[in-house]
Design a protein that fits this description.
- Strands 1-2-3 form a 3-stranded antiparallel β-sheet.
- It is built from 2 helices and 3 strands; from the N terminus they run βββαα.
- The protein is globular, with a radius of gyration of 15 Å.
- The chain has one domain.
- It is an alpha+beta fold and 83 residues long.
- The model has no long low-confidence stretch (mean pLDDT 82).
- A hairpin with a 2-residue loop joins β1 and β2.
Length: 83
């Protein structure tokens, strides 16, 4: 991408559970649904329901925080620039 090219939007993907939005920023982040620094969502797609207990879901999301850190994001960005 050339610096003079226009970017119409920078999209992000997240998931909302019990009114809390989970997304990847500088690591796994949370906020009230629809209040990220990215602004209001352009589109919301309902994925359905789960029978998993909330404790299991939260435990899984916490485990992702150990894998998807801000350092990983930096390394991925650096790798994209080198390739």
């Amino acid at each position: 991408m050339h610096p003079s090219e226009q970017i119409d939007a920078v999209y992000h993907t997240s998931i909302v559970l019990d009114g809390i939005e989970y997304y990847y920023g500088s690591g796994v982040q949370t906020c009230r649904a629809g209040t990220t620094h990215h602004g209001r969502p352009m589109e919301v797609i309902k994925l359905g329901q789960t029978a998993l207990p909330m404790e299991v879901i939260l435990e899984y999301l916490e485990s992702l925080k150990e894998i998807y850190t801000a350092e990983v994001r930096f390394r991925l960005a650096l790798l994209r620039r080198l390739c």
